[in-house]
Amino acid sequence: MKNADILRVARERMGAAVTADEENRNEALDDLAKLTGDQWPEEIKTERETDNKPCLTLNRLPQFVRQVTGDIRRMNPALNIIPANQEASKETAEIVEGLVRQIEYRSDASSVYEQTAEQAAASSIGSFRILSDYEDDDTFDQEILIKRIRNSFSVYYDPSAQMPTREDGNWTFITEQMSAEDFDRTYPKKGRVDAEHDGTTDGLEYWHHEGRVVVAEYYWKEPVSKTIWLMADGTIREDEPQIPEYSVRKREVKTHQIKWAKISGDSVLEGPKDIPGKIIPVVAITGEEWHVGEKVHRSSVIRYAKDAQQMYNLWRSASTEVVALQPKAPYMVTAKQIAGLETLWGQANQKNRPYLVYNPDEKAGPPSRSAPPVASQGMMTEIMAAAEDMKATTGIYDAGLGNASTEKSGVAIRQRQMESDVSTSIYSDNMAKAIATCGRIIIGMIPSIYDTQRVIRILGKDEKESMVLVNRVIGTPTGEEIINDLKVGKYDVRVSVGPNYSTRRQETSEGMLEFARTFPAAAAVTSDLIAKAQDWPDADLFAERLKKTLPPGVIELEDMEPEEQQQIQGQMQQAQEQQQQQQEFAQVMQRAEATKATAEADEAEADATKARLEVSKQSLELAAQNGELNAAIGQLVQQEVQRALQSVLQPGY
To answer: How far is the C-alpha of 430 from the C-alpha of 433, rounded, in Å?
Structure first.
């Protein structure tokens, strides 16, 4: 787009934004005025002050806003980054999450979120932004920052945006007012709008205000088209000059590019330039919204309590007025009784005199005071009704405000507090949605801002800092490889709400100590964890020493220090060697026992053979004496043959 086209469209859009949101803005301004104590209609205040009547402002509205903002401050939202496609890795997601956490810490994002949500609770809408800037004056490295937009009325959103964060809008303005002198000094060669508003200035009437020049940062989504191809390996390639080989599918995509320019009503002061990401980096936190036909009605916590607050002020002032008149009740006297004493009696209701002197008047009794005005019970009823109306219109009752209430049991009090939290939960819910949108914007900006090899600081969940080298290029046999590449993969955001790390650590410590008291045996194997969870100075050193006393197998090897790992591995290797030696010794002993048994069996067999030979010798000698030698020899030969056959043949043959 040319500059003339940018300005023409911008003027049209500014006019549309002002017209669409004018009613909500007027109501929001009135909310803030009432919240800060400007609660009397001017004509009534003037009339009462003229009559010397009190105009008390007993402002009860801030307590309702503080109740909501107090709940918001206890949320402790945390952004969790998860991989969203196959090219994203869990390891890189942890680095991105640590980087996002460091960006939040560097920007004091918790204060930005809380103050913006407080603005929404007080006036129905608040805004913050995400931008990039150089880390220092002597570097080209940039960083992402989260910034509060102090004046929520300086932001104009696309009226067609439907989401409470306004992330689906097509354009956004962030305006500021400059004096003519400051504008000419800052932009000496640029024109400024100083025409009087006549209704026919083509939208220029919104670009000057009481002699001041309106300057705006203008974000818009410019439509673009691209072609993407699905490759056979599942990867996506886009905007190739030629059709890639091995492509499976082709698709034409209509998307957009975020643009930024700084403009006045008739000049482009800076830009235009591209902004990384797909979401305009300006995020809204809104209150409750109702769609009435084509109009959007937006409300704050105190929107419907303002009338009750004014009635409360009126009846308290009237009651104070009545009570204040009681000591000023006039005296009933005759002219004779105060003759010569007019000055004394004229000060009767101003000075606390111990007595009043009067002249006797035989025609009248002693001077007497007329009956003083009495406070109306109806006034007290109206005061109480106005106070209850403020609670009813906000949905926040005594239990939620910390005041004494009719509920007596803890359960009943908690239930009433819960009702108050539920009735205003829209503000905390919308804050969580805004933080998630902020996370998505940051993720969309990271590949362009952190696009070179550099060392970045990341912050862990335990709030410990570490340094990581990202986009590191290393050589490989097949080419180059990038380690911790922040430009590859898609990531998504989840917002978790709960106690912060310090609170969780304290709860963990208390739970561990209670469990150790209940089950003392557990302390023997968890002593290092119990010590680490404490909030003492040097608790980590205490835990490290205790960890060294734990028996093997209780602590995982990868959780140990390198020296401890080497020591444990040496002990394990020594134990394996001892076990192997014991196995070898057992095998040697088994072989020795087998050899001994064989020798004993051979010796027994030899003894048996010797005994048979002795028996055979005796039998032969006896047969020779009896003349039966040949028969005896034959019998012995037959027995030996059978024995030999039995030793050779196996059973079953």
So the answer is: 5
